Amino acid sequence: MTYGNTKTLPFLVSPRNPAVHNAGTRPLLPRFQAFGVVVASGVALLVFWLLRDRAKPWYEQSRIVARGRGMLAQSTRFWP
User: Fold this and answer.
1) Within a domain: residue 49?
2) pTM above 0.70, yes or no
3) DSSP 25
4) Per-residue pLDDT reduced to its tens digit, 12-65
5) Cβ partners under 8 Å of residue 14, min gap 6
6) Distance from C-alpha of 46 to C-alpha of 40, rounded to nearest angstrom
7) b vs e for 24-62, b when ≥16 Cβ sit within 10 Å of the residue's Cβ?
8) Considering its fold, how many domains does the chain have in total?
9) Measured between alpha carbons, how far is 30 from 42 in angstroms, rounded to an integer?
10) Terminal Cα distance for the chain, rounded
11) Within a domain: 77
12) Residue 68 belongs to a domain
C-alpha cells in the first residue's frame, strides 16, 4: 500500500443500538448465530409440546385408566 491510497470498507451501524454493527452495506447474521437461533427455537418448541399436556384440564388429557379396587378417588390418593 502506497501513501495516499487507503482502502475503505463500508460499515453499517444500527440506528437504534450503535453496539450492533456489521462490516458491509447490508445487515447479515453470522451462520453460528443463525444456527443457535434455530436450535433454541427447536428446544423451545419441544418443551412447549411436552408441557402442553400437563396444562390441560383433566377431561382433555389422555384417557384415565383406573387400576386397583374401589373408587377412582381412592386409588389415586397421594397421601393418607
Assistant:
1) yes
2) no
3) S
4) 888 888 888 888 888 777 788 889 999 999 999 999 988 887 777 777 777 766
5) 20, 21, 27
6) 10
7) eeeeeeeeeeeeeeeeeeeeeeeeeeeeeeeeeeeeeee
8) 1
9) 19
10) 86
11) no
12) no
Provide φ and ψ at 24, rounded to 5°.
Answer: 130, 180
C-alpha cell at 74: 381412592
Distances (CA, A) of 75 to 17, 59, 66, 72: 59, 18, 7, 5
Range of the domain at 56: 35-62
Asked whether the beta carbons of 68 and 77 are under 8 A apart, the reply is no
Contact predicate 75/69, CB 8 Å: yes
Q: How many CB atoms lie within 10 A of CB 22?
A: 15
Is 75 domain-assigned? no
* Residue 4 region by backbone torsions, left for phi larger than 0, else alpha for psi between -120 and 50, else beta: left
